[in-house]
Structures are given as C-alpha cells and as structure tokens.
Amino acid sequence: MRALVNMRLALGSIFGWDREPAANSCETFASRMTTADQSKTLVPSGRREGMFRVVYRFENEQLLEVINRTAHAAALSALVETDGSYRFYFGVYVSPVSGFTRVYMSMIEPFRRLIVYPSLLRTIRAKWNETFCTG
C-alpha cells in the first residue's frame, strides 16, 4: 500500500491536486464546532497529522479532515463499548470542491475499496490485538 500512496502523492504533486484551495474558499469542519466540543478536544483543532488536520479528538472518537483541490474529505473513527466488547466505527465523508472531484473519486474507488480500507482496518486490528490481546 505504501507504493500506492507514494504514487498518488507524486501524481498529486505533478498535477497540483494536493494544494490547498484559496483561503476562505472552503469552510472547515473545525469552524462549525461548538464551544463545548472545542473545550473537550484532546488535540487542538487544526493540528497537522500527515496529510490531515485534526478537527477534534475525544477519548474514543476523532475526526480528521483534508481540504485540497480534489476534495474536502473527513475521516471519522469511533470506538464504542458494548456488552462485553467494543465496536469500531469508521466512516469517510467526501464533499466536492470542483467538477474534478466526482471524476477523481470514481477513478480511485477500486483502490479505496480493495486496497486502502482493508489495509487500514487490518492495521487497526493488529494494533488492537497487540495492545489488548497479549497475554
């Protein structure tokens, strides 16, 4: 998967896909947070983590965001305790920023579904097992 990410980043650099849009052209999710939620986040909103910015991070939930010339996207992950176990939720939201967004998302759909998401979830499962299932 690392090779796929590197290839995407190289193409993004060549075509300018990863440049952030002009200031004020796209409202961030962090700007919509309530004062109460802003006070609860464990990491300051706007902090960069790789290609993403943290919108918020609570004890068992986080929202990361990326805004560039291909999409305004957010990744939400949440861990919810149930009777005797935990349930992990992961969702990706993509909002178009231009006419190219739909074309771009269609082009990468097979890679997201067949490579990126399964690999990401395997990594999360392995980390969970390493942390909580050793004994």
How would you describe the overall organization of this protein?
There is one protein chain. By secondary structure, the chain is α+β, with helices and mostly antiparallel strands. It has a domain at 19-101. It is built from three helices and five strands. It has helices at 2-15, 35-40, 100-132; strands at 48-49, 52-58, 61-67, 72-82, 85-95. Strands 1-2-3-4-5 form a five-stranded antiparallel beta sheet. β4 (72-82) and β5 form a beta hairpin. The mean pLDDT is 88.
Individual helix count: 3
Q: Profile the largest sheet.
A: 5 strands, antiparallel
Mean pLDDT: 88
Q: So what's the overall shape?
A: globular
Number-wise, the strands total: 5
Instruction: Write the H/E string, N to C.
Output: HHEEEEEH
What is the terminal-to-terminal distance?
Answer: 30 Å
Can you tag this structure with a few keywords?
alpha+beta; 5 strands; globular
Topology at a glance:
Layout: H1 2-15, H2 35-40, E1 48-49, E2 52-58, E3 61-67, E4 72-82, E5 85-95, H3 100-132
Write a brief caption for the model.
With 135 residues, this protein is of the alpha+beta class. The chain contains 3 helices and 5 strands.
